[in-house]
Structures are given as structure tokens and as C-alpha cells.
Write a structure and sequence with these properties.
The chain is an alpha/beta fold. GO terms for molecular function: 3-hydroxybutyrate dehydrogenase activity.
């Protein structure tokens, strides 16, 4: 197990990609802190299930990723409980689809806060301890939209481009400290986030649900298949492995060929 005696914080990890990554890291021996929203009983079932299956400690924080003070408290809680934070996975994200002139400013602010600024706050808190121990793995879940754009997603595209740039800058700063920073850029993954944006896309483009899936979502991906959460999780595990020690500042596309076009 490559992460035995290590500890990881994974934001946005009560469902979808984040949960798959959390489970994958736990299977590799990492104690984990889950974060996200959901029904308390369902989150507790997830948390306790990971502990039972993987034999690790699993904590949960409901910290709001729009609030720096709550992020700082979450990171402090993890450091206090585990004695260390070795891996930070910034996965929390929301989406909103609208023409730019109709885009609600409060939606812009929320998307930038959750999809971009929260990554700064987690890294800001984790790096001192990582430096002291001479080891750290920062994995930012970006998107194909960190490399290319789509209409009606101005805030999301801006945030994901920002994550890619932030990752590169942090990687350069930490290159001599045993800490790597990389991002994973999935194409369309079938998650609650993707499913929830279909109605807005239907409205914005005047399409049916089937047309959105076939002509908007999978149109971009030459394989004509959704990426799976487990495929993304496997890449996250690889980035934490010894094989990836010399990988830093990279942006790994897992998008069915989308950005190869």
C-alpha cells in the first residue's frame, strides 16, 4: 500500500469523482478526511463503510468551500487528528450554465470561490507541514475546460484555467521540497454535477436531454463514452505513487481524446 501511514484531505468527496478518489486513497492505506454536502446519515454510512473496508481512519468535515475560515478549520482538524496532511486533493466544484450577459454575479463568485480559491486555501494550510516532513502530493481536479472553452460556462472555464495555472506555479515553488503538484483534467464524467447541468443546457440551447448528451457532452469526446470516476481515481493514486515522483506541474488529460482535436 503506497500511502500506508499517510493522511489525505479530499474536498468535494461525498459523491462522484471525489468519493472515488477518497476510496482509492483509503485502499492504499491513507487515513482520509471527507468533505462535502449531503444527508448526514448517508455521509456517515460512507465514512464508516470506508473505515470498515479499508482499515483506515475516515473523518468528515462539512466545511463550506466558499468560506476560508471553515477551510482553515477543516485543515487544522485533519492535522490535529492525523498528525499530518500528506495528500491534498482539491476536487470540490459547482457548475452553472448561462449566457455571459445573463450570468448572475453571485453564481460567478460562488464558482470562483469553490472551484478555484478553495484550492489556494487548502494548499496554503497544508504546505508548511509538507515542507517540514519533506513529502507532499497536491492533486487538483481540473477539467478539459482547463485547456479549452465551451460557451455559456464562463465562470467554470475561468476557474479551471486558473487551477491549471495555480498548479504550475505551486509545482515550481515546491519542486525542491519533495512535494509535487499536478492536475487531472477529465472530460465529461457521469457524475451528479454533469447530470445537474443538463436542464440548464437544454434551456440555454433549446435541446432535448438526449440531444444534450449526444450533441453537446459526448460530441466533444471522440470515444463517445463518458469517463468513469474510477478512471480518474486511478490517476490520482498514480500521482501519489513513487512512479510519479518526478511528475510535477503536469496537467493530465483523461477526456476521450477531446483536447487532442
Amino acid at each position: 500500500m503506497i500511502l500506508k501511514s499517510k493522511a489525505a484531505v479530499i474536498t468535494g468527496s461525498t459523491s462522484g469523482i471525489g468519493l472515488a478518489i477518497a476510496k482509492a486513497l483509503a485502499r492504499e492505506g491513507a487515513d482520509i478526511l471527507l468533505n462535502g454536502f449531503g444527508k448526514p446519515d448517508e455521509i456517515e454510512a460512507i465514512r464508516s463503510g470506508i473505515e470498515a473496508e479499508c482499515g483506515v481512519r475516515a473523518l468528515y468535515s462539512g466545511a463550506d468551500m466558499t468560506k476560508p475560515s471553515e477551510i482553515a478549520a477543516m485543515m487544522e482538524e485533519a492535522e490535529g487528528a492525523f498528525g499530518r496532511i500528506d495528500v491534498v486533493v482539491n476536487n470540490a466544484g459547482i457548475q452553472f450554465v448561462s449566457p455571459v450577459e445573463e450570468f448572475p454575479p453571485e453564481k460567478w463568485d460562488a464558482i470562483i470561490a469553490i472551484n478555484l480559491s478553495s484550492a489556494f486555501h487548502t494548499v496554503h494550510a497544508a504546505v508548511p507541514g509538507m515542507k517540514a516532513r519533506g513529502f507532499g502530493r497536491i492533486v487538483n481536479v481540473a477539467s478539459a475546460h482547463s485547456l479549452v472553452a465551451s460557451p455559456f460556462k464562463s465562470a467554470y472555464v475561468a476557474a479551471k484555467h486558473g487551477i491549471a495555472g495555480f498548479t504550475k506555479s505551486v509545482a515550481l515553488e515546491l519542486a525542491t521540497h519533495g512535494i509535487t503538484a499536478n492536475c487531472i483534467s477529465p472530460g465529461y464524467v457521469w457524475t451528479p454535477l454533469v447530470e445537474s447541468q443538463i436542464p440548464d443546457t437544454m434551456k440555454a440551447r433549446g435541446l432535448t436531454k438526449e440531444q444534450v448528451i449526444e450533441d453537446v457532452l459526448l460530441k466533444a469526446q471522440p470515444t463517445k463514452e463518458f469517463v468513469t470516476v474510477d478512471q480518474v481515481a486511478a490517476i490520482a493514486v498514480f500521482l501519489c505513487s513513487p512512479a510519479a515522483t518526478q511528475m510535477t506541474g503536469a496537467n493530465l488529460s483523461v477526456d476521450g481524446g477531446w483536447t487532442a482535436q
